[in-house]
Amino acid sequence: MSEGLKVVVAGAAVYGASAALALAERGHAVTLVDEGPLPHPHASSTDISKVVRLDYGSDAFYMAQMERALEGWQRWSTRWTTPLFHACGVSFLARRPLERGMFEWSSLQGLRARGHDVEELDSAGLARRFPAWSAARYPGGYYNPQGGWAESGEVVRWLIGEARAAGVTLVDSARITGLLGQAEQVVGCALADGRSLAADRVVVAAGAWTPSLLPELRGALRSVAQPVVHFAPSDPTPFQAPRFSVWAADTSGTGWYGFPANAQGVVKIANHGPGLPLDADAERVFDRAWDARFRAFVAESLPALTDAPIVYRRLCLYCDTLDGDFLIDNHPQRPGLVIATGGSGHGFKFAPLLGGWIADVVEGGRAPARFAWRQVSAPKTEEARFGG
Q1: pLDDT tens readout for residues 210-238
Q2: Are 171 and 31 in contact (CB under 8 A)?
Q3: 354 phi and psi, to 5 degrees?
Q4: Angle, to 10 degrees, between the axis of helix 14-25 and the axis of helix 152-165?
Q5: Please, what are the domains in the chain?
Q6: Which one of 87, 141, 208, 258 has the fewest CB atoms closer than 10 angstroms to its CB?
Q7: Which residues contact 216 (CB under 8 A, 6 or more apart)?
C-alpha cells in the first residue's frame, strides 16, 4: 500500500465524494475539485431519491455486492440524526405471471437461493399489500422487504461534509480543464482560472463529464438523459410506506419505476429506457411529450395520481458503459491516473462501497474484476440498470 499520497479527485458527486472520504480516512492528502454548487444540480446523484435494491436478475455478483452495500447503508444510518436511508422494501411488478427468463423471475429465484425472505405477489396479493396499484394489470411480481431508497442529494452533501471533516481540501468553484503530465505520467491537473494542482494520483470521477476530460473514453462511455417527474398529490397517504414501496413496473418492458411519497408528499416517478444521447454541458430540455406518457402510465397503474400536479421535471444524465458495469481502474497508458466512472444508472446504491473500491486502486490494489479497464463490443441484455 502506498502511504501518504497527494491525491486530486475531480468531481464531487457520489463517486468522487465517497473516494475523497475513504482516501482521507486512510491517511492521504486529498483535494476534491468541482465547479459547484454542491451537491452539483446537474450531477446524476443529485435528486430527492435513488433506489437501494438487491435485485439483479441472475447476476449473482451485483446481488452479493449489494448485500455488502446494504450493510453499509445500515451502518451509515446509525451516524445520521435525520434518516437519509428509508428501508421500505422494493416491489417488482410484471404485466404477466412470472416465468423463467423474465428479469423479475430471475431476481426472485436468485434472492431466495441466497436466503432472502421475498414475498411473491399476484394481483390479489398486490391489492392487499399495496392498494394504490391497479392490481389487475400486474398479475406477477414480488415484494422484497430488504432495500428501499436514499435521499441521494442529501447523502452526497453528508459525504462532502464528512470528507471536509476528515481533512479533505474542497475546491468547489473551479473547473478542471486538463491534466498535467511528465511524458505519460499524470502529475496533477489544470484549472480554468489558471491555477494548477500537483498530485501523485489524479482520480477522474466526473460522471458524464468524464469524456470531456478524457476524450479517449468517448467510445467507451456515453451520456444518456432519462426523464424524471415529481407529482404532488393532494392526499399523499396512499403512497406512503408501508402502504407503498419503491417499485419497478414491468421494468424490462416499459422502464417505469418510482418511489413512495417523501416527507414533503412528493411522489417521484422515472423511466429507464434507451434515453436521449446528450453531452454533459448541453442544455437540458425536458420534452413535454413525456408529460402525456407519464400521465398515461399513472392513469392506468396508479389512478390516485391521475390529477396530481407535476411540480418538477428533470433529465437525469447517466454515464453509461456499453456493458453497464462500472469502470474503476488505472488508466493503462497514463500512470498516475485513476478512472472512477460508468455509474450507468445503477451506481448510487453502492455508495458505501464505492470509496473503498476507488481507494484500493489509488493505493495500488484492485477493484472487483468486473470494473477493470476493458474493451466491450456488445451490451448485456438482462440486467435492469436503473436507480433513480
Answers
A1: 999 999 999 899 999 999 999 999 999 99
A2: yes
A3: -55, -50
A4: 30
A5: 6-371 (3.50.50.60)
A6: 87
A7: none
